[in-house]
Amino acid sequence: MAQPIPLEIPPRNPRAALQSRLEHAPEEHAEALLAAYEVLQELHNRGVLEIMRGALVASDDLLEKVVDNAKTPEAIRAIRNLFLLQRILGSIDPEWLEGVVQAIPEGIAEATTERDQPVGLFRLLRRLASKDSLRGLATALDFLQAFGRRLNSAHNSLPRD
Description:
Layout: H1 14-28, H2 30-45, H3 48-57, H4 59-70, H5 73-91, H6 94-113, H7 121-128, H8 131-157
């Protein structure tokens, strides 16, 4: 009758596997290691590592000061306002906002080139009659109307003494 073949698997040594991977890492990842060393050197040259070390040493004090400042009514209002601004910016079509951003330097350039010329009432009325001016005025009036409506509703919702 056949005899079973004894199979003994040596126990796996995870420490030896890690040591082997560590020994081969410089060969396998030489380019990445060099890039990491360059980044580390630049951080050191610019003083970022010193700042990080100082922040780690003083982390408890820094955290305490940040928390104390964050508890003030002004900081709470600022955080709430930032969230509201995020909602506003998120609701604006980027193409429309890009038009506004481009119009600002154009308007400043036009104002500075015409600054030497006297401003007359008829000249202003002629400029006001252009399609672009009327479109801008209509948009500004729409904004002012909505703003006034919100101010009125906010005023009416305030508790009265």
